[in-house]
């Protein structure tokens, strides 16, 4: 073992400045405290958010008891102690000194957020629980009822443990085939209902995260069309039930009637099928038992249906079967048929993979060069530790345990790629950015397999290596050949690539001599919770979401700051300090770089993000995936986001390019495509439905409306509000016999442009109300409208608003519409949400507001003036995170109520660390 960061005779903890903190988490519904642990100990450089997440998620023991962990030292010691002891017991280390170096380097790297193991390691290792270290599982199902029922059971056990699994159902006979008894088979889609119900029950009965699962079906299965359209049909059901007044909001009491919502669906497409699509040929669907063609379909029409369903509801994704199996190291044991829920782990049935991710930004030195030597050493350390974990690990089923111990699949990956590229002046969607990403990925995998070959010399190759030696070595040569084909663009990637070439050369030599300890070494996971644990700006392979972010403050609250990688990037691009300050100030005010003072247009692309004014094009994401895929044993967890205006043709193009560029799996998401998601208007689907209908011309007479003027004296209510740090006042007046008739809004100083616009808007809305325009009509137009200022509000009933207009009309709905009408729009008060959680009827909470008793001139509490530094547009004190950190369709966290953000194919909550996926 080699020292990387530590010194002989000095414990790594002794070089850290530690501090005590209090962690108090409140309930988003009613403000009550739902977690409290005071005096926890963390390094002073750890953010408040990272410390909160580790305390609440990973510290073991009952809160308030002496057994409860209270220091990061205890957590790391608990985990690393098991790794070190196991390594000593099984002969991994040549000497006691090597064991000490391993122990100290792991502790240093974890405490300094250089890398992190996946969550199950932190949950389970060193506790009395089973020592489960894997987050990803793949199951198998045969065409037998006993096997199908066993699948239900195995999934349940995995979900209960907080992990996720995937399965391919293509062995199950289709609904177009006969049973041995003479009856017709049910087909895999039918059995999916039972599995979906089971997953939904386990989710609601235990964890706050949904059960993460993947269901795969081969494209030549006779039931493929039904499988493709399954979730899209359910979206139609959601729309119909919602319009009929049922509560179809996320977490609503009626959403449980919708099926197939607990799984990601993917079609396993073959090269034969994709070539048939290109040529416009017919394609045969085959019987499961005999393999004979029982139906012929038009390949392009079937492909079109896949793209249309994905356009409507984001499912199904695609997995490229021939590409996956062409890079398969153990084909003599069996084909790869499925993946884990996020599609990054692709290997044998009944197997598992434990993950660890490196924080790439930790290797960017002050002179903006990449620390290649230390990256190599750390990769060696992590692979050694991950292999040791399989030795002591427990598994949910005996079959999974047998396969995992025999093939020892590992999943090393990284996070903060997007931040690294921006900090070094590389655009994410550029040849230079892709070259850096490819070189780092190649180096990481080359070192991993080289270390795997070294481990094989010490403790032996994996049990299944002998029968798979030739195909495994063939895949190693494919990786090395891809590395040889990599074309460098700049000095940074050239240096990394040079070392990668040396590592692959050594890997091939050692592998030929020793074999390999691991059948799989690398993949790119979502890095949701562990990315927050490491204080990463970006997750997995993702670009930055936005140029501004929020930072939690000690003692509560948060403030909005410009990403710290931006000044570093500007300096790297040659800007002077005065220019950097002006540009950063502009970004703080506008959240984008367009027209920033002094910033050259050719540098705009460096600051492109996943969202915002200059969002990266969908194919930019696909090209980045393609640049790194040849250097990964597994695949990549990433969803290609498309704008709401994207067409079915656009999705077809993405799926076709993914195949041509050699990806293993691909998923897409079109903004606002899911009706059942919060803050989703579903306008795209409605437009498509409208386009299908033939126009019907009618001549009708319309009575002109008459204006019902407000009386001189009328009841009214004034609301003071804050949206995204911007303060305003709203006065809403009603007719004496009920019914809203007038709205006045005040923001900014009298005489300003904003004040004039708000006055004109108020008059327009008020006249419309008095002419009989229903308030519900305004709701449908202005709720979910998005523009700055946006974010958290000071209203307990409306915690998050996408704009001032979104807040105003949600508040008006709560004040002036009955519960049934609001429920159809998904607008509930805090008390109603709490009642839903208790299983009570929220409609029973309705009270009549005595508007005449409300004083119009209640004293308004002025906020104390803040210091000059706090008034800077670069750092503004806020109660929320910028709306640009999230997509409109991201779900609300069921733990803390914060809007979640994408992390690969999953979502992660920055408030508490909860994830919607398996890692």
TrEMBL record:
Keyword Disulfide bond: yes
EC number: 1.17.4.1
Cofactor: adenosylcob(III)alamin
Gene3D superfamilies: 3.20.70.20
Function per UniProt: Catalyzes the reduction of ribonucleotides to deoxyribonucleotides. May function to provide a pool of deoxyribonucleotide precursors for DNA repair during oxygen limitation and/or for immediate growth after restoration of oxygen.
Domain Ribonucleotide reductase class II vitamin B12-dependent N-terminal intervals: 23-113
Domain TSCPD per the UniProt entry, residue ranges: 711-814
SUPFAM superfamilies: PFL-like glycyl radical enzymes
Organism placement in taxonomy: Bacteria, Bacillati, Actinomycetota, Actinomycetes, Streptosporangiales
Single GO BP term: DNA biosynthetic process
Keywords attached to this entry: Cobalamin, Cobalt, Disulfide bond, DNA synthesis, Nucleotide-binding, Oxidoreductase
Catalysed reactions, as listed in the record: a 2'-deoxyribonucleoside 5'-diphosphate + [thioredoxin]-disulfide + H2O = a ribonucleoside 5'-diphosphate + [thioredoxin]-dithiol
The protein, known as: Vitamin B12-dependent ribonucleotide reductase
The keyword Protein biosynthesis is annotated on this UniProt entry: no
Organism: Nonomuraea jabiensis
Family, per entry: Belongs to the ribonucleoside diphosphate reductase class-2 family.
Matching InterPro entries: RdRp_reductase_class-2 (IPR050862), RNR_2_N (IPR013678), RNR_lg_C (IPR000788), RNR_NrdJ/NrdZ (IPR013344), TSCPD_dom (IPR024434)
Residues covered by the Ribonucleotide reductase large subunit C-terminal domain: 134-669
């Amino acid at each position: 073992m080699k020292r990387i960061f530590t010194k002989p005779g000095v414990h790594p903890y002794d070089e850290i400045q530690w501090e005590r903190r209090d962690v108090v988490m409140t309930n988003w519904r009613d403000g009550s405290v739902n977690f409290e642990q005071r005096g926890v100990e963390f390094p002073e450089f750890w953010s408040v958010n990272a410390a909160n997440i580790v305390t609440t998620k990973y510290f073991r023991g009952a809160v308030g008891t002496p057994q409860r962990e209270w220091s990061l030292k205890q957590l790391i010691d608990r985990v690393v102690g098991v790794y070190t002891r196991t390594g000593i017991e099984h002969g991994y280390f040549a000497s006691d000194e090597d064991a000490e170096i391993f122990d100290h380097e792991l502790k240093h790297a974890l405490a300094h957020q250089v890398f992190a193991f996946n969550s199950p390691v932190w949950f389970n290792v060193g506790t009395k629980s089973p020592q489960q270290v894997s987050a990803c599982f793949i199951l198998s199902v045969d065409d037998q009822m006993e096997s199908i029922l066993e699948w239900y059971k195995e999934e349940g056990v995995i979900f209960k443990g907080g992990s996720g699994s995937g399965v391919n159902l293509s062995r199950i006979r289709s609904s177009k085939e006969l049973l041995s008894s003479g009856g017709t088979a049910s087909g895999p889609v039918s059995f999916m209902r039972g599995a979906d119900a089971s997953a939904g029950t386990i989710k609601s009965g235990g964890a706050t995260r949904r059960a993460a699962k993947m269901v795969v079906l081969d494209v030549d299965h006779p039931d493929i069309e039904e499988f493709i359209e399954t979730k899209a049909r359910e979206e139609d059901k959601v729309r119909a039930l919602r319009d009929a007044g049922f509560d179809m909001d996320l977490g609503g009491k009626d959403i449980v009637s919708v099926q197939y919502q607990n799984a990601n669906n993917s079609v396993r497409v073959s090269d034969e099928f994709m070539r048939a699509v290109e040529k416009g040929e017919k394609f045969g669907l085959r019987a499961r038992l005999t393999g004979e063609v029982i139906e012929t379909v038009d390949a392009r029409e079937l492909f079109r249906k896949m793209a249309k369903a994905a356009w409507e509801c984001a499912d199904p994704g695609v997995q490229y079967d021939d590409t996956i199996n062409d890079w398969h190291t153990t084909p003599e044991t069996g084909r790869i048929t499925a993946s884990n829920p996020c599609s990054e782990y692709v290997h044998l049935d009944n197997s598992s993979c434990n993950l660890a991710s490196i924080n790439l930004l930790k290797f960017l030195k002050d002179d903006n060069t990449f620390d290649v030597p230390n990256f190599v050493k750390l990769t060696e350390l992590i692979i050694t530790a991950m292999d040791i974990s399989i030795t002591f690990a427990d598994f949910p089923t005996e079959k999974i345990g047998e396969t995992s111990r025999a093939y020892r699949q590992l999943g090393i990956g990284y996070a903060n790629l997007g931040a690294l590229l921006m900090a070094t002046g590389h655009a994410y969607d550029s040849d230079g950015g892709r070259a850096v990403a490819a070189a780092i990925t190649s180096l990481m995998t080359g070192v991993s397999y080289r270390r795997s070959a070294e481990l094989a010399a010490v403790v032996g190759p994996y049990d299944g290596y002998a029968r798979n030696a030739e195909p495994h070595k063939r895949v190693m040569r494919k990786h090395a050949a891809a590395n040889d084909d990599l074309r460098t663009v700049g000095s940074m990637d050239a240096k990394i690539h040079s070392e990668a070439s040396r590592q692959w050369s050594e890997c091939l030599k050692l592998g030929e001599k020793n074999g390999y300890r691991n059948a799989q070494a690398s993949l790119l996971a979502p890095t949701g919770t562990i990315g927050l644990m490491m204080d990463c700006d970006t997750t997995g392979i993702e670009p930055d979401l936005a140029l501004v972010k929020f930072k939690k403050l000690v003692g509560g609250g948060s403030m909005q700051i410009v990403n710290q990688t931006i000044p570093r990037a500007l300096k790297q691009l040659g800007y002077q300090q005065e220019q950097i300050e002006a540009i950063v100030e502009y970004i703080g005010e506008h959240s984008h770089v367009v027209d920033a003072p002094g910033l050259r247009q050719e540098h705009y692309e460096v600051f492109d993000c996943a969202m915002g004014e200059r969002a990266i094009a969908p194919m930019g994401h696909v090209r980045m995936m393609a640049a790194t895929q040849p250097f990964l044993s597994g695949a990549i967890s990433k969803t290609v986001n498309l704008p709401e205006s994207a067409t079915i043709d656009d999705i077809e193009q993405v799926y076709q390019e993914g195949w041509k560029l050699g990806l293993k799996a691909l998923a897409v998401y079109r903004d606002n495509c899911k009706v059942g998601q919060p803050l989703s208007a579903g306008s795209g689907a409605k437009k498509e439905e409208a386009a299908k209908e033939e126009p019907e011309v009618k001549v009708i007479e319309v009575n002109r409306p008459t204006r019902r003027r407000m009386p001189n004296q009328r009841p009214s209510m004034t609301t003071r509000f804050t949206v995204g740090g911007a303060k305003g006042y709203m006065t809403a007046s009603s007719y004496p016999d009920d019914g809203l008739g007038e709205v006045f809004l005040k923001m900014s100083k009298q005489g300003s442009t904003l004040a004039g616009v708000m006055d004109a808007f108020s008059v327009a809305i008020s006249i419309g109300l008095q002419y009989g325009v229903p308030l519900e009509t305004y709701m449908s137009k202005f709720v979910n409208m998005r523009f700055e200022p946006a974010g958290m509000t000071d209203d307990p009933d409306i915690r998050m608003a996408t704009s001032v207009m979104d807040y105003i009309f949600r508040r008006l709905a709560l004040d002036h519409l009955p519960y049934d009408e609001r429920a159809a729009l998904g607008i509930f008060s805090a008390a109603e949400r709490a009642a839903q959680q208790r299983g009570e009827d929220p409609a029973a909470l309705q009270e009549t507001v005595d508007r005449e008793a409300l004083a119009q001139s209640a004293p308004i509490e002025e906020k104390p003036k803040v210091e000059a530094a706090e008034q800077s547009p670069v750092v503004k004190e806020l109660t929320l995170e910028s709306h640009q950190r999230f997509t409109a369709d991201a779900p609300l966290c069921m733990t803390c109520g914060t809007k979640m953000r994408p992390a690969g194919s999953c979502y992660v909550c920055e408030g508490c660390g909860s994830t919607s996926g398996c890692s």
